[in-house]
Amino acid sequence: MPEHMEHTESTESTDGTATSVPAVRVEGLWKRFGDQIAVAGIDLELPAGKFIGLVGPNGAGKTTTLSMVTGLLRPDMGRIEVGGHDVWRDPVEVKSRIGVLPEGLRLFERLSGRELLAYTGRLRGLPGAEVDKRATQLLDVLDLAGAQHKLVVDYSTGMRKKIGLAAALLHNPEVLFLDEPFEGVDPVSAQTIREVLVRYTRSGATVVFSSHVMELVESLCDWVAVMAAGRIRAQGTLAEVRGEAPSLQSAFLALVGAGGRETSGSLDWLGGTR
Ligand SMILES: Nc1ncnc2c1ncn2[C@@H]1O[C@H](COP(=O)(O)OP(=O)(O)OP(=O)(O)O)[C@@H](O)[C@H]1O
């Protein structure tokens, strides 16, 4: 693993007390695709140094939000800051501070895993020897050392996620954004990814990841934002969002209004005698 710098930044407020700059601040963010409003004017303030889960049902707007926050998709309206820097006015500054594992990750398929990391490191402006050192450690920790000379096109889904994660971590970003990092990943690889991410947040870095898997979010995250139909339904610490509910899953179902869909009258042809 790369050695981490202390990532959390703080500024002096007018009364002289130190206030930490949020990892991400979003104000009035909108995105529409034709008639479909994917993100309907959301506000978010994600604290630095936390493990943050963005949860919501299919089509809630999570990927669209993460794409706008990471500078991959231009918002129709709204303002986004990462570490106090405006994503759309100061994109180079922001991109040097973030790592991204996007959904449907596209990688350079004809490079080996090792070559992909070497290329990514040089694009990030790191010296060759440093890239080599970091790549060797990441490949080792993520259990990809044996496959480092294999072409990425021949990697499995889980291996692709892991090499994508390695590429996103190589420059030691302040904030790491992961869209469904555990989807299609076996339990052993998932555990490896978890360990790497937990270690990374302990250095003061921030992880923001989207997921549908509430148990995972509940066990990993200290801060949660719940999204449904393009809006933020709740945001806060895990305890605040869970409230009186017995689990994050039941709080989530109540928040997104998915508590009691009646299926007994329909699908009556499914199962039984044929
Ligand atoms: N490029 C696009 N063109 C048209 N509609 C889009 C596009 N991208 C997203 N949408 C629509 O915007 C809405 C939000 O989609 P988004 O992918 O952000 O949701 P999500 O929360 O990430 O869902 P999932 O959990 O299923 O990945 C959906 O209704 C989707 O159909």
From TrEMBL:
Annotated spans, Disordered: 1-20
Single GO BP term: methylation
Compartments (UniProt record): Cell membrane
GO molecular-function term, one example from the UniProt record: ATP binding
Gene3D superfamilies in the cross-refs: P-loop containing nucleotide triphosphate hydrolases
Membrane topology listed for this record: Peripheral membrane protein
Keywords assigned by UniProt, alphabetized: Antibiotic resistance, ATP-binding, Methyltransferase, Nucleotide-binding, Transferase, Transport
SUPFAM superfamilies hit by this protein: P-loop containing nucleoside triphosphate hydrolases (SSF52540)
Name assigned to this protein: ABC transporter ATP-binding protein
